[in-house]
Amino acid sequence: MSSSPGILSHPDFRRLWIADLLSQLGSRLGMMAAPLLAVLTLNASTLQVSLLRTSETAAWLVLGLFAGAWVDRVRCLPVLVAADLGRAVLLGSIPVAAWFGVLTLAQLYVVLALTGLLTVLFDVAHSSYPPRLLAPEQLLPGNAKLAANHSVAAVLGAGAGGFLVQWLSAAVTLGLDALSFVWSAIWLRSIRTPEPRPAPAERPNLRREIGEGLRYVFTHPLLRPIALNQTTTMLFQAASGAVMIVFLVREIHLSPSLIGVLSMTGLLGALAASWFTERLSTRIGDARALVLGSAAIGVAFTLQALTTPGWGLAWYVLGTLLAAIGIIVSYIVAISARQRLCPPDLQGRVSATMSFVSWGAAPIGSLLGGLTATAVGLRTTLLAAGLATLLGASWLLPPTQTPLVPSPRPLHQLAPSRRQLAPRSAPAAAAARIRPARRAGRRG
């Protein structure tokens, strides 16, 4: 198998990787700037701030499953470029409105909601594109590089976002977010590898095609527990994330720049995880690596809830570091397993189904976080969200439902029988590409 550094020798993957990094950085700037804009400039309440994230992620409930069926019919690259340019236009309207003194919370909600719709199309196409660009044995190192972008952008974007908000204002920071999408689109347009148009279905039927994606995921003994775990994690991660900025500003009394500095400490965890996940998965097996990553996220969110002023900020730093590790490990293992197990003609629908059930929980979680914080307080809400996220790792524990087994068996040994799958799916051959755990030095 190609090593992770070697995958960047693929010129078009390198272009995709750069575009992804720019897009991720811009998105993270926006995730930091939007709630700070609401809190510091528009004087929004805790519930109103949580509704920002709700409006942005509600698109998964509206468009998620449709996007998967549609992406399976079209080339992914034009979708990625169009979504980037559309988000640039929408987010660019915020600094313009602020410049003329007419920016309102209502405009912020509308822009984030429409941006969320384009993000759904982008994410589904982006998740389905690597199998069209790379060979199967390149997917794990390729996804490791893309996952590194995700976490590095989360940390650098949060850090830079805090500084930029304090120095330039939140509205201008969102304008920089818009520019990052333009730059990403330019890099995507430079990809030269031809992407063939998927063969059209004999009788296109959107409802049937969506149903095939749902059945494949929820009858698959490996993908089903992963989907349920990701849904639980996203639900309570969204609840925590919706009120975290309010908690740090109003209870811990941190400035935007200090919030950014503390958030950047997760960079070390992100870089470490992107480097060792492939080795960890090879040594202990994909299943155990996935469980460890999921549990680490829950522990991390719980630690963040213990944050206090002064030396108590160490809890936030430690939680941020551990969260970056857990998120990257879980992401790399889960998406690589899904891409190997899923046949090419179902990639978009299965990707959309997995995203729909996980990201579809995000608007519910954001609203839940805002309502709970209003009722019982910010710290209690964060603590409950962390413990619930940790409990969500239990979806991966029963051997009858998940790839976790007493010994690190390869995931392909647990592939479903033909009777468990839709007639058209045929994942058995794809499942054989799941890499076995290394057994050297182990007994039994």
Automatic annotation (TrEMBL):
Keywords: Cell membrane, Membrane, Transmembrane, Transmembrane helix. Residues 435-444 have a biased composition (Basic residues). The chain crosses the membrane at residues 21-44, 50-70, 106-125, 146-164, 258-277, 289-307, 313-335, 356-376. This is MFS transporter. It holds the Pfam family MFS_1. Residues 217-444 form the Major facilitator superfamily (MFS) profile domain. Residues 417-444 are annotated as: Disordered. It is a multi-pass membrane protein. Residues 417-434 have a biased composition (Low complexity). PANTHER family: INTEGRAL MEMBRANE EFFLUX PROTEIN-RELATED, MAJOR FACILITATOR SUPERFAMILY ASSOCIATED DOMAIN-CONTAINING PROTEIN. It comes from Kribbella ginsengisoli. It is found in: Cell membrane. InterPro entries: MFS, MFS_dom, MFS_trans_sf. Gene3D superfamilies: MFS general substrate transporter like domains.
